[in-house]
Amino acid sequence: MPGPQDLEPGESIEQYLGNVVREARLALGRDWTQAYVAGKTFSSGTRISEIERGEDPPDRELARRLEIVLRLPPGTLVNLVKILTERTVRDYAKTYLRRQLEATAIHEFSIVVPGLLQTARYARAAMQAGLAGTPAQIDDYARRRLDRQAVLDRPDPPWMMLVLDEACLRRDMGGAQAMREQIEHLLAMGERPQVNIQVLPMKGAPVAGSVSLLTFAKGQRGAYTEGFNTGNYTEDPAEVMHFQRVYDLLQQAALGVRASRELMRDIAKEQDD
């Protein structure tokens, strides 16, 4: 069986997942060989070796068993597998989605409701607008997107500061009922102590894309920007600082939390007219 190999977490999600498995196994002691872990997870030493080298990631069931055996927090591996199986995720977004699961804080400006706060109806409508696939495929993609929202239900969820473009609250995405449900969901999520939602009024010039800033436990930071069919994730300090300034300006122009909630309630009521 091949020996362990050093992996660069930033190279791919597969390699990052393999590195998590390997480090967790080694941390448990010398007796925790690949063969030993294989026996406890009803797998094989060769299979564990392939996972650790980033060559063949586990399916969700094996990922769950590995989490239990290696004493990893629930979702550590399963959430990564979900991202890998999400066919609508572009290559440029995969690193960001993986790093988003590790973030302790998320500061985001978005011209659409971000995936972590979308309802099922809104998610389906957004994917239909982007011609993401057949109705059956879109239902599957939307379910997987909602699965990733479990990160906000963790015992230690990330702090989420969201500035939301008012235009996306008024844009018909799936019909009046879907939009009312989506806004009500935003209001409910905004009541959580770790979720802060502000609305950027439509009185200014339109913003061309979204920006998300991630902060990690050891102080590292990353920035992800996305437009139509394109995106970029970087952890270069100079670029992150540039996008921090962009976010700060947008946040300063946004309504306060209370005023934002009042506006969202008013827009939700308009859906009944």
Protein described:
By secondary structure, this protein is of the alpha/beta class. The chain is 48% helix and 14% strand. The protein has 2 domains: 13-82, 434 Repressor (Amino-terminal Domain); 91-270, Endonuclease Chain A (Endonuclease, Chain A), CATH 3.30.870. It has 12 helices and 6 strands. Strands 3-2-1-4-5-6 form a 6-stranded mixed β-sheet, sandwiched between helices. A hairpin with a 2-residue loop joins strand 5 (221-227) and strand 6. Helix 2 packs across helix 3 (45-52). The radius of gyration is 20 Å and the shape is elongated. It starts with 12 loop residues before the first helix and ends with a helix.
Layout of helices and strands:
Blueprint: H1 13-27, H2 34-40, H3 45-52, H4 60-69, H5 78-85, H6 91-100, E1 105-110, H7 120-129, H8 135-147, E2 159-165, H9 166-170, H10 176-189, E3 195-200, E4 210-215, E5 221-227, E6 230-234, H11 237-253, H12 257-270
Helix pairs in contact: 2-3, 7-8, 10-12
Short description:
The chain is 48% helix and 14% strand. With 273 residues, it is an alpha/beta fold.
Q: What share of residues is helical?
A: 40-55%
Please state the average pLDDT score.
86
Mind summarizing the main beta sheet? 6 strands, mixed
Into how many domains do the coordinates divide? 2
C-alpha geometry: elongated
Which structural class is indicated by helix and strand composition? alpha/beta
Oligomer classification: single chain
CATH topology of the largest domain: Endonuclease, Chain A
